[in-house]
Amino acid sequence: MAKKNTKIKEDTTKNLSFAIPMNVFKGVYSNFALIKHTKREFIIDFVFQEGEQAELISRIIMGPEQMKDFQNALNRNIESFNSTKDNPKKDK
Known about the structure:
Elements: E1 3-10, E2 14-21, H1 22-25, E3 32-37, E4 42-50, E5 53-62, H2 64-86
Antiparallel strand pairs: 1-2, 3-4, 4-5
């Protein structure tokens, strides 16, 4: 399957380049998530639910430090989304 090369800028000092398989690049839709943790890891289950039927779409397991980084990145993106939403002329 074809792959798309993608560069991601991490913080302001590092660049990370990797290939994304096209079936992953297209993404999947989830309308529900469950988050649980143990002493050593966080587990995020992404689910698609319609009515009483639900299907696990993906499970992501992260260590505590990676989860903190994920939380910070998510918070930054939510703030950016909200500021763009509040100011429609500001495009990112």
